[in-house]
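Protein: APC family permease
Species: Paracoccus methylarcula
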Amino acid sequence: MSDTVSNTPGIAGEAESTAVQNGGLLRVLGPAHIWALGVGIVLVGEYMGWNFAVGKGGAYAALIACWFAGILYSCVAMLDSEVTSTVAAAGGQYTQAKHIIGPLMAFNVGLYLVFAYTMLEAANAITVGFLVETVAGMSGHEGLDPRPFIVLSIMFLAWLNYRGVLATLTFSLVITAIAFSAILILFLATSPVFGESPLRHVELMTDLPYGWLGVLAAMHFGLWYYLGIEGTCQAAEEVRSPARSLPFGTLAGVMTLAIAATLTWYVCVGLMPWEYLGQSGVPLFDAARLSGSTSLAVLLGIGTLFATLASANGCINDASRAWFAMGRDHYLPSWFGAVHPAYRTPYRSIIFLVPIALIFALGAPLDQVITFSILSGLLGYTFMPLNMMLFRRKWPLDSIKRGYEHPFHPIPAITLLCLCGITYFAVFLGYGTQLVAMIAFYIVVSLWFHFWRYRFVYRAAQFTMPWPKPKGY
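Structure follows.
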């Protein structure tokens, strides 16, 4: 296989090119695969999870949280697109931290990524089981055990990832497109454009039941509308043209999700009282059933299943790439840095993370799993503004070539940092114990890395980008 990789200092330079072609990962993906990876991971947030924000503060609070989270993730997408199109290697934000900040930050960021995606994978599997159980109950088969379906979904997707990234993300592209189309069809079918609408916003909408404190609390689950879009960075070493595909796929993904999130909110709050919507397991499927159309119920049932499978599929891909990159750099045992000789996938990392996802999928409540994923993602987002500011300071725009230059620096970085601070407080209001426990966990593993694991790291092999020395070095 031939591939053209720029040797310009800054963009997927010669060091990465050599590593990829000699027994490493293959560059076989295009912009559509990046869009499918980002949107596929996140679109499940429109099918379940976001509605817990309604329970925190009411329907209007969930909409405000949706739009503020959209601003947060637009900043994430802009910052990530610039750095990742320049540091085009597996590991995404972990590799960025390794080059720009240092080993301890890189180790923590790598763990943030793995936990965020593995917990999201577990949440998706729980939703698959819940959906199967609900459909079985509707057809007269009460009491169906969802656990075999949870296990089967994770095992099937792990096998698919094991077999190759091109087939994996092509599968995600197809089912993500179907799931997104289902949301558009539900909106059009229930809107007054084509006749009488079942939507009853006037009767069902209320003021803020818990005031503006409820709006703040809703920010916790507002992230679920978009959580995981930053996972597009994990494909940086497997995309044919990082400078073009990564920014295009990521930014197009954020716009797609903003549209899907707003349409989802509009339909659901027009069909369900906020008290019920705030605790629904599969709100879009429930909305389709309440529309009175059997065809819509079937379509949204399929859409929910496809959205959860696409998300879990992308999560396995992203978590394994981060774990693989850390193993390859000896931040973890080098055994995890192996690439399959035939399929060219990080197969050991894929296999290792399967039982961890199963433990949480089979033994933890959905809202707790979602919270663990959100907290790990939030810690990663807090790192991004610092990373971006140091990147621009150490390597100004005229010192290295970038695949994409995000505008208005440093406004997006400062905005992201402020929104992260607000969201931390929102999480603390409802899940303070989990927040403290997770921060304590990362402090403990940081001490372990500093005093034990760092001695095994090949320090001279850490910096693979052919950049000039940082400004002020």
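Remarks: DSSP finds 18 helices and no strands in the chain.
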